[in-house]
From TrEMBL, chains A, B:
Signal peptide: none annotated. GO terms for biological process: phosphorelay signal transduction system; regulation of DNA-templated transcription. Residues 144-208 form the HTH luxR-type domain. Pfam families: GerE, Response_reg. It comes from the Bacteria. Residues 4-120 form the Response regulatory domain. Keywords: DNA-binding, Phosphoprotein. SMART domains: HTH_LUXR, REC. The keyword Phosphoprotein applies. Coiled coil: none annotated. This is Response regulator transcription factor.
Length: 208, 208
DNA sequence: ATAAAAATACCACTTTAGTAGTAGTGCTTA
DNA sequence: TAAGCACTACTACTAAAGTGGTATTTTTAT
């Protein structure tokens, strides 16, 4: 089993040393290396690549947009970002576009090969501080959750049903309450949260 | 520099072998191992732990809720899930609760020690398929975004204002339209999305 | 050039949501 | 034990949202 790797990287030196690294290692081959996103977008659909190493900064169209175009149509290709940018914004944009891994250019050669294997096998190799950024992004809710803590258990239960779009009557039926009781609870929820509509209540408690 | 590790794990055998592993390795010490979430919640605030290995399945309160209670008050402690559950739901709940890493019990001993070091150093160690789940979760938007693509520019603009909780009159004023026009747009949005309320429309287009 | 889609707008109507006041029961705790 | 909160429930009302039909103008695509 040989992993077919493509490269999209504008800096000649990096592109060539990556090519040499990959072709010099058993189990890998790199037959195509592109300088621009545009070339890659034209060629890649006709090739049979397993993994594509993608830089972010490229002359015209950037690497993130390049993935965004290719990934939806070529789901079996695994895109691995290999770049020097590691700001939160770049990381999340790349992952949203369809990258499955994210390593920095400073990664040592043997680790780059490891990452290629890992992404090929369905993993998501990431540099350690990038993984942390990604994991931390799940925890944001804690801040605003101060709001939700003002509510009683019953109120949270009703808010949760509100968030799913149920009407008062449906909530009442689910909880075996009268519609009027549901109405009262919601009035109290709104007062505690200092809002006066369902959407405002949800935006305060389930942000983002 | 010695990393102070705590363990919360109900199965005696696993708890003890983890303790032995950690105490037998240079640079690590494990002075406290708890059988239940309740014990951990009582004791941990008084200890000075760097990393806590947490199981999910525990007798009464589970490990995720245990983290949810401890993490907000003890931000410097790094929680590392070590469990046999690796369903999507458990993973995301744990990360939301405040876990910074997630490995499975089948991880080999040396890798467990590596993960402890990594989480202690601000990384987020994860088993390879768990990392992929996490990364894939960023791409979900692409699926549901098929929904939003059915809408015209004006409709997306109005949907966006709807999501912020504005009423028809307010949207009309912002866009210099009549309320009736806004009403018509919203009717068309709902028809395209096959929903019949603001909350349902938002849940279909801005999921999660 | 013509059909389709998008954007604008009105009327009339029904349903749902939100506001206000009130009140009984039961549990907790100071 | 009295005050406070949570949970339940009612009436009455107003405001907002949602449904249906229709129509003109502009833009876009075939």
């Amino acid at each position: 089993m040989i992993i077919n790797v493509g490269i999209v990287e504008d800096e000649k030196q990096i592109r060539e040393s990556l090519t040499v690294l990959i072709n010099g290692s058993e189990g890998f081959t790199c037959l195509y290396a592109f300088e621009t996103a545009e070339e890659a977008i034209l060629a890649i659909p006709t090739l049979n690549l397993d993994v594509v190493l993608m830089d972010i900064h490229l002359p015209a169209k950037n690497g993130i947009d390049c993935i965004a175009e290719l990934k939806p149509k070529h789901h079996s290709i695994q895109f691995l970002m290999c770049t020097s940018f590691e700001d939160t914004d770049s990381v999340f944009k790349a992952l949203k576009a369809g990258a499955s891994g994210y390593i920095t250019k400073t990664t040592q050669p043997s680790k780059i090969l490891d990452a290629i294997v890992e992404v090929f096998n369905g993993g998501s190799p990431m540099s350690s501080n990038i993984a942390r950024k990604v994991v931390d992004s799940f925890q944001i809710s804690n801040k605003e959750n101060l709001e939700i803590q003002k509510l009683s258990e019953r109120e949270k239960e009703i808010l949760n049903l509100l968030s799913q779009g149920f009407r008062y009557k449906e909530i009442a039926d689910k909880l075996f309450l009268s519609t009027e009781t549901v109405r009262t609870h919601i009035r109290n929820i709104y007062e505690k949260l200092q809002v006066n509509s369902r959407t405002d209540a949800l935006n305060k408690t389930f942000p983002k």
